[in-house]
Amino acid sequence: MEFIEVCGWIGSLSYFFYSLPQTVETVYNGKTNGISTLMILLIILGSFFSLLCILPDITSPLFYNFLGTLVCALILCKYHFFPRKKRS
Can you give the pTM of this predicted structure? Predict the structure, then answer.
């Protein structure tokens, strides 16, 4: 593995992992707190179209970055529009 490829993997994984804490907190709480609808929709659109662009090269670290970010954004979207009801 070349140095540039290692840098690509580190950058892509770092970029993906930034979305994990918010996703975990959202699933735990059952709702999004302080995240705007526009931000969630922009993350979904950006990840989706970036994933389509890189789709022919699934060995690229960017493919996994965009796929992971899209999954996290869809989870945020689900809890943003359909928050979990409080248990009585």
Answer: 0.82
